[in-house]
Design a protein that fits this description.
This protein is an alpha+beta fold. Helices cover about 25% and strands about 15% of the residues. It has helices spanning about 35-55, 65-70, 120-125; strands at about 1-5, 15, 20-25, 95-100, 105-110, 135-140. The strands form 2 sheets. It has a 3-stranded mixed β-sheet, covered by helices on one side. Strands 5-4-6 form a 3-stranded antiparallel β-sheet, with no helix packed on it. Strand 4 and strand 5 (about 105-110) form a beta hairpin. Helix 1 (about 35-55) packs across helix 2. The longest helix has 21 residues, at about 35-55.
Protein backbone atom coordinates (compact mmCIF):
# COMPACT_ATOMS: atom_id res chain seq x y z
CA UNK A 1 0.00 0.00 0.00
CA UNK A 2 1.17 3.51 -0.81
CA UNK A 3 0.24 6.78 0.91
CA UNK A 4 1.13 10.08 -0.72
CA UNK A 5 0.35 13.79 -0.63
CA UNK A 6 -1.48 14.91 -3.75
CA UNK A 7 -1.28 18.68 -4.38
CA UNK A 8 -4.04 18.37 -7.00
CA UNK A 9 -6.61 17.57 -4.31
CA UNK A 10 -8.47 20.78 -3.55
CA UNK A 11 -11.85 20.04 -1.99
CA UNK A 12 -11.48 16.56 -0.55
CA UNK A 13 -9.32 15.67 2.42
CA UNK A 14 -8.28 12.37 0.90
CA UNK A 15 -8.97 9.73 -1.70
CA UNK A 16 -8.53 5.96 -1.82
CA UNK A 17 -7.74 3.89 -4.90
CA UNK A 18 -8.52 0.27 -4.11
CA UNK A 19 -7.10 -1.27 -7.30
CA UNK A 20 -3.72 0.39 -6.75
CA UNK A 21 -3.87 0.08 -2.94
CA UNK A 22 -3.11 3.78 -2.78
CA UNK A 23 -4.25 6.60 -0.51
CA UNK A 24 -3.84 10.23 -1.48
CA UNK A 25 -4.05 13.01 1.10
CA UNK A 26 -4.63 16.71 0.59
CA UNK A 27 -1.48 18.65 1.59
CA UNK A 28 -3.74 21.28 3.21
CA UNK A 29 -4.26 18.71 6.00
CA UNK A 30 -0.82 19.75 7.26
CA UNK A 31 -2.45 23.02 8.39
CA UNK A 32 -4.64 21.10 10.85
CA UNK A 33 -3.72 19.09 13.92
CA UNK A 34 -2.16 15.65 13.71
CA UNK A 35 -5.42 14.00 14.78
CA UNK A 36 -7.13 15.28 11.62
CA UNK A 37 -4.44 13.72 9.43
CA UNK A 38 -4.74 10.44 11.36
CA UNK A 39 -8.53 10.40 11.09
CA UNK A 40 -8.46 11.14 7.36
CA UNK A 41 -5.87 8.42 6.79
CA UNK A 42 -8.02 5.90 8.71
CA UNK A 43 -11.13 7.05 6.80
CA UNK A 44 -9.41 6.31 3.49
CA UNK A 45 -7.88 3.07 4.78
CA UNK A 46 -11.40 1.91 5.68
CA UNK A 47 -12.32 2.29 1.99
CA UNK A 48 -9.43 -0.01 1.01
CA UNK A 49 -10.37 -2.57 3.69
CA UNK A 50 -14.05 -2.56 2.68
CA UNK A 51 -13.27 -2.95 -1.03
CA UNK A 52 -10.73 -5.67 -0.36
CA UNK A 53 -13.26 -7.65 1.66
CA UNK A 54 -15.98 -7.17 -0.96
CA UNK A 55 -13.81 -8.51 -3.76
CA UNK A 56 -15.54 -7.92 -7.08
CA UNK A 57 -18.90 -7.22 -5.43
CA UNK A 58 -20.05 -3.61 -5.82
CA UNK A 59 -20.41 -1.72 -2.53
CA UNK A 60 -21.57 1.76 -1.62
CA UNK A 61 -18.68 4.16 -0.92
CA UNK A 62 -19.83 4.90 2.65
CA UNK A 63 -22.10 1.91 3.11
CA UNK A 64 -22.24 -0.76 5.83
CA UNK A 65 -19.00 -2.45 4.74
CA UNK A 66 -17.11 0.84 5.04
CA UNK A 67 -18.79 1.69 8.35
CA UNK A 68 -17.75 -1.70 9.78
CA UNK A 69 -14.15 -1.14 8.64
CA UNK A 70 -14.19 2.33 10.28
CA UNK A 71 -15.36 0.83 13.57
CA UNK A 72 -12.65 -1.83 13.42
CA UNK A 73 -10.02 0.84 12.74
CA UNK A 74 -11.09 2.80 15.81
CA UNK A 75 -13.22 5.52 14.22
CA UNK A 76 -16.81 4.32 14.75
CA UNK A 77 -19.50 6.70 13.54
CA UNK A 78 -17.12 8.37 11.08
CA UNK A 79 -19.06 10.80 8.87
CA UNK A 80 -18.96 10.30 5.12
CA UNK A 81 -17.76 13.86 4.53
CA UNK A 82 -15.22 15.96 6.36
CA UNK A 83 -16.13 19.20 8.08
CA UNK A 84 -12.81 20.91 7.35
CA UNK A 85 -12.80 24.45 5.98
CA UNK A 86 -11.49 23.39 2.57
CA UNK A 87 -12.83 25.11 -0.57
CA UNK A 88 -15.99 23.62 -2.04
CA UNK A 89 -16.65 23.24 -5.74
CA UNK A 90 -20.22 22.60 -6.76
CA UNK A 91 -20.48 20.93 -10.14
CA UNK A 92 -23.71 21.33 -12.00
CA UNK A 93 -25.30 17.92 -12.48
CA UNK A 94 -26.67 18.32 -15.99
CA UNK A 95 -27.18 14.67 -16.84
CA UNK A 96 -30.18 12.87 -15.42
CA UNK A 97 -30.87 9.15 -15.54
CA UNK A 98 -33.80 7.12 -14.25
CA UNK A 99 -34.40 3.49 -13.36
CA UNK A 100 -37.22 2.05 -15.49
CA UNK A 101 -38.33 -0.22 -12.65
CA UNK A 102 -38.42 1.96 -9.53
CA UNK A 103 -38.16 5.44 -11.05
CA UNK A 104 -35.13 6.40 -8.95
CA UNK A 105 -33.46 9.48 -10.47
CA UNK A 106 -29.68 9.81 -10.61
CA UNK A 107 -28.09 13.16 -11.47
CA UNK A 108 -24.50 13.33 -12.70
CA UNK A 109 -22.00 16.00 -13.70
CA UNK A 110 -20.68 13.71 -16.44
CA UNK A 111 -22.39 11.37 -18.87
CA UNK A 112 -22.34 7.67 -18.07
CA UNK A 113 -19.75 6.12 -20.36
CA UNK A 114 -20.79 2.53 -19.73
CA UNK A 115 -24.00 0.73 -18.98
CA UNK A 116 -25.10 1.27 -15.40
CA UNK A 117 -27.99 -0.28 -13.52
CA UNK A 118 -29.98 0.82 -10.49
CA UNK A 119 -28.09 -0.60 -7.50
CA UNK A 120 -31.10 -0.81 -5.12
CA UNK A 121 -33.11 -2.72 -7.75
CA UNK A 122 -30.19 -5.05 -8.53
CA UNK A 123 -29.77 -5.75 -4.83
CA UNK A 124 -33.47 -6.36 -4.26
CA UNK A 125 -34.32 -8.38 -7.38
CA UNK A 126 -31.06 -9.85 -8.68
CA UNK A 127 -29.08 -10.78 -5.58
CA UNK A 128 -26.86 -7.70 -5.95
CA UNK A 129 -25.71 -8.67 -9.44
CA UNK A 130 -25.84 -6.41 -12.49
CA UNK A 131 -29.16 -6.89 -14.27
CA UNK A 132 -30.00 -5.27 -17.60
CA UNK A 133 -33.66 -4.96 -16.58
CA UNK A 134 -32.59 -2.06 -14.36
CA UNK A 135 -30.36 -0.18 -16.82
CA UNK A 136 -30.43 3.55 -16.14
CA UNK A 137 -32.04 5.49 -18.98
CA UNK A 138 -31.00 9.05 -19.88
CA UNK A 139 -33.82 11.52 -19.35
CA UNK A 140 -31.92 14.75 -20.16
CA UNK A 141 -28.57 15.85 -21.53
Amino acid sequence: MRVEWNPRLRTSAGRAWSRQARIELNPLLKNFDEEEIRRTLLHELAHLVAHNRAGRRKIAPHGPEWQLACAELGIPGEPARHQLPLPRIRQQRRFTYACPACGKVVRRARRLRHEAACLPCCRQHAGGRFDRRFLLVATTG
